[in-house]
Design a protein that fits this description.
This protein has 20 helices and no strands. With 460 residues, it is an all-alpha fold. The protein has a single domain (3-357, 392-443), classed as Hydantoin permease (Orthogonal Bundle), CATH 1.10.4160. The longest helix has 34 residues, at 304-337. The relative contact order is 0.19. The structure holds tryptophan. Residues 23-24, 26-29, 102, 228-229, 231, 234, 236, 322, 325-326, 393 line the site of tryptophan.
């Protein structure tokens, strides 16, 4: 079997857009975006987020896809091919590690969703009138060590199974069916949410920017969330690009994925934030936000239980199409570079991810010291998800921009993008963004992160 057959390829252009959107759309949009927006002051954050997506995320996505298609390799092999013998390969190594860690804590949240699917189906949320009851249910649920670990393991195994079955059949098919239904369901839920009594305060919070709330932490959060939501900075789009054909129009595909991903995140905000206001909850609730809001929202709808079951199922599928795209990076690395069999690579990586996931699963109330790390004033989950959700992806994206902008060269990238009669109309603008705007903005914000957060966290 040739290498290419073993790796598989997308079946059509729309196939890639669907798969790319499947990777991008996930818990990042539906779970993370609403609570990060809530924590960072609402509308002003949303505006900055959108700027980050289109001025920095979109160009970096084009860069990653181009690198992937050019070399048809995983991130380590890609750097190896384009800059042999240079330290750039360590950037690829960072991707593999980041992917594993993200996979581990992402699966914890996906496990919660599986638990909530069960609870909804079993009717635990029926006739729930008191909004504070959802909080109690949530706290009890996430502080039970056995169920959270078991659900996380289940989700990791499920992802491993899909990756083992192969890229094309695994991801493309699911994404194609999932996406349109997800959009329809989100629109219906958003309509219910904004028409709840008391929702208008949440709408104002979400739509009327208060620019005095802008500070460096918020800018960093917006940038990190943009990379996270677009699946950038750890080689997912490099690896997905490696399955693209020369006939595919990379900038157009990237534009579709970015637009679609942003649309879904914004919609999720319309579902969650007005309901938060209507139910008298706090925007700053953190990772538990959607789990405390959605059950009550379903309770306010006719046929809410069926709605709830359908919605949680869709989130699970959206999460799988994302975790597949994360796990595939370390797996492709082992298969391509280390010549492991796919089966062993998947099994090994899932095992490591499971070990890494245990402390993350226990850090939301199950184990006291993980839930409130002594001397750090925060919990293990929060630290690991911001180090490996935001910082590491931001660093990875910076390296991609520098590599394409200054080492490999945007001219070579343009040549690759235009290889089969495609014209890249915005090549000049893209080149400017990838060489100057992205590296400078990202470096400045990373500098602030190190000074204000990381340094403080570890050295006081
Ligand atoms: N973007 C996905 C989400 O929003 C998560 C994800 C998939 C991801 N692949 C990634 C995040 C690569 C960072 C890097 O849920």
């Amino acid at each position: 079997m040739t290498e290419n057959q073993d790796r598989g390829a997308w079946s059509s252009r729309i196939g890639f857009i669907m798969a790319g959107a499947g990777s991008a759309v996930g818990l990042g949009n539906i779970w993370r975006f609403p609570y990060i927006t809530g924590e960072n002051g609402g509308a002003a954050f949303v505006l900055i987020y959108i700027l980050c997506i289109f001025l920095i995320g979109f160009p970096v996505m084009i860069a990653e896809l181009t690198l992937g298609r050019k070399t048809a390799k995983n991130p380590v092999g890609m750097f190896h091919a384009l800059a042999p013998g240079s330290p750039w390969k360590y950037v690829g190594g960072l991707s593999v590690i980041t992917g594993l860690v993200i996979f581990s804590w992402y699966s914890v949240i996906a496990g919660w969703v599986v638990g909530y699917l069960y609870k909804t189906a079993a009717g635990h949320f029926n006739n729930l009138t008191d909004p504070s009851a959802t909080e109690t249910i949530f706290r009890d649920f996430v502080s039970n060590p056995f169920s959270v670990i078991l659900l996380t393991a289940f989700f990791i195994a499920l992802t491993g199974y899909v990756v083992f079955k192969g890229v094309k059949s695994g991801i493309e098919k699911w994404s194609r069916v999932l996406m349109p239904i997800l959009v329809v369901l989100l629109i219906l839920l958003a309509i219910r949410s904004v028409t709840l009594p008391g929702a208008s305060e949440g709408l104002i919070f979400y739509l009327k920017p208060d620019f005095s709330a802008i500070n460096t932490n918020m800018l960093i959060a917006a940038l990190g969330q943009a990379f996270f939501s677009l699946s950038l900075g750890m080689g997912t789009m490099i690896t997905y690009g490696s399955y693209l054909s020369k006939k595919d129009n990379i900038p157009t595909a990237a534009a579709w994925v970015c637009t679609f991903d942003t649309l879904i995140a914004i919609l999720a905000g319309f579902v969650i934030l007005p309901a938060v206001a209507a139910m008298g909850k706090a925007y700053t609730e953190g990772p538990g936000l959607i789990f405390q809001v959605l059950p009550s929202l379903f309770g306010e709808m006719p046929g809410g239980q069926i709605f709830g079951v359908g919605f949680f199922m869709l989130i699970i599928i959206a999460a799988i199409t994302s975790t597949v795209s994360i796990l595939i990076v370390p797996v492709a690395y082992m298969v391509d570079e280390k010549k492991w069999s796919r089966r062993n690579a998947v099994g090994f990586m899932c095992l490591i991810a499971f070990v890494l996931s245990v402390p993350a699963a226990l850090a939301n109330g199950a184990v006291g010291f993980l839930s409130s790390l002594p001397g750090l004033g925060t919990d293990y989950f929060t630290i690991i998800s911001s180090l490996f959700g935001d910082v590491s992806l931001t660093l990875g994206s910076l390296f991609i921009a520098l590599f394409v902008g200054w080492k490999w060269s945007t001219a070579k990238a343009k040549e690759e993008i235009e290889s089969e009669g495609i014209t890249f109309g915005l090549a000049k603008q893209w080149s400017f963004l990838i060489r100057f705007v992205a590296p400078i903005t990202v470096s400045i914000l990373l500098g602030y992160t190190f000074r204000d957060n990381i340094w403080k966290l570890f050295f006081g």
